[in-house]
């Protein structure tokens, strides 16, 4: 059993969808071993964008961010894994792709702050709230075992 299994919300943003990076980003998530327990493509409308980015209302980049996130489909996912919330944040890299570490998603795939390819929840509270915005409980499928879970089960005393 994982000792601190967490669920987090991740979205592949419209820039990455349009650039044909869906597969490569999911590949990295799967390579790391995170369990994808929900996944769908959807077009975010202004109402959903406003809920998702409520914390940024009034900031100078807010209008542009909403225009961007509603400009094309996203891939919404729920990921599960050991310390998945902070793990995914590290995996994504810093918000500004120019500061993001090489090897991170933003470090490798993005150049410009707004168009930074991926979103990931920043805390347990955000994760729960964002998962609830995008998915119904019955859309989350975690009743299966990843290879890591199988290995750990076999090795447990
Ligand atoms: P995060 O995505 O790393 O959590 P936040 O500060 O929550 O970063 O900002 C949400 C999103 O808004 C960023 O991912 C980025 O797309 C956009 N954004 C943040 N700050 C700026 C900015 O200064 N200029 C333009 N876009 C920004
Ligand atoms: Mg954020």
Describe the structure concisely for a colleague:
With 157 residues, this protein is of the alpha+beta class.
Q: How many DSSP helices?
A: 8
What proportion of the residues form beta strands (DSSP E)?
15-25%
Distance between the termini: 11 Å
Number of strands: 4
Biggest sheet details:
4 strands, antiparallel
Uncertain runs:
none
Structural class: alpha+beta
What small molecules accompany the polymer chains?
Answer: inosine-5'-diphosphate, magnesium ion
User: Over all CA atoms, what is the radius of gyration?
Assistant: 16 Å
Strand order of the largest sheet: 2-3-1-4
General shape: globular
Range of helix content: 40-55%
Mean pLDDT over the residues? 97
What is the H-and-E element order? EHHEHHEHHEHH
Describe the structure.
The protein is α+β, with helices and mostly antiparallel strands. 41% of the residues lie in helices and 19% in strands. The protein is built from 8 helices and 4 strands, in the order βααβααβααβαα. Strands 2-3-1-4 form a 4-stranded antiparallel β-sheet, with helices on both faces. The longest helix is centred in the first third of the chain and has 11 residues. The radius of gyration is 16 Å and the shape is globular. The chain starts with a strand and ends with a helix. The mean pLDDT is 97.
